[in-house]
Amino acid sequence: MKLANPFFDSVFELMMDNDELSKLFISNIVELPVTKIEKLPVVLASENISISEYVCHLDFVIETSDGNILVEIMKAHTPQQFLKYRLKLGESYALALLNGEIKDRYLNSSNTVKTIYLIRNYTNSLNQTISVMENKIEKTNATESESPSIEHKSYFVKLTGYQEPMNDLERFLSLFDVSESEIIIETEVYPDQYKPILDFLAEIATDAELCANLEAKNHEILNRN
């Protein structure tokens, strides 16, 4: 089965533009059913950062049985890339807050934030598929009607190094453990629950013009100064 390479940022972003596919992807990482999803504009545009600071970054608000949750998704090769990007992102958030551009959309959308870090070169001491860290962020200007803090949970997801036996999620994530330079990859059978994503990637793979455009976009992202 031939698929468009989901490790390509351009392919991944196109996949996550589809509401049903983004709900499926996020719900299986955070282990919560997602009933509704809205993609948000990212505060820090990729053209405003250098390649050494760049990560693929997408923001969503999801509706779950636990209420609305802000979800950040960031994809990169190493954990160190996230540190550089976070510093730059913090500067952009501070400026946007100062200008009143994101207060309502981001800070009032949810008191819970989940950040999914998709990491190509990542290992942890327990060799876990997903390492989870939780903390609270105190609000400095919370009103009496607001929660005084934001619940923040980070999911560190490894994208490489999977070996048999694999569970369904690991088998799906192993799709990302592929060539970084080929727009088309070949795969074996994957769990039925991820079939909508595989069908979408397979459809892209049949469109030569779209693949060429996505490959060119990915090359442009990774080869700017």
Structure write-up:
The chain has 225 residues and is of the alpha/beta class. It has one domain. It contains seven helices and eight strands, in the order E-H-H-E-E-E-H-H-E-E-E-H-E-H-H. Strand 3 (56-64) and strand 4 form a beta hairpin. The radius of gyration is 18 Å and the shape is globular. The mean pLDDT is 84.
- Estimated structural class: alpha/beta
Give the overall silhouette.
globular
Amount of beta strand:
25-35%
In order across it, which strands form the biggest sheet? Answer: 2-3-4-5-7-6
- Main beta-sheet annotation: 6 strands, mixed
Distance between the termini: 36 Å
| Total domain units | 1
From the structure provided, what is the oligomeric state, counting identical versus distinct chains? Answer: single chain
C-alpha Rg (nearest Å): 18 Å
User: How many H/I helical runs?
Assistant: 7
DSSP E strands, number: 8
Order of helices and strands: EHHEEEHHEEEHEHH
Q: What tags apply to this protein structure?
A:
7 helices; six-stranded mixed sheet; alpha/beta
Short recap of the structure:
This protein has 225 residues and is α/β, with parallel strands linked by helices. It has 7 helices and 8 strands, in the order E-H-H-E-E-E-H-H-E-E-E-H-E-H-H.
What is the strand and helix layout of this fold?
Elements (H helix, E strand, L loop, with lengths): L1 E3 L4 H8 L2 H12 L5 E5 L15 E9 L2 E10 L2 H20 L4 H5 L4 E8 L10 E9 L10 E10 L9 H6 L10 E3 L8 H11 L2 H15 L3
Parallel strand pairs: 4-5, 5-7
Antiparallel strand pairs: 1-8, 2-3, 3-4, 6-7
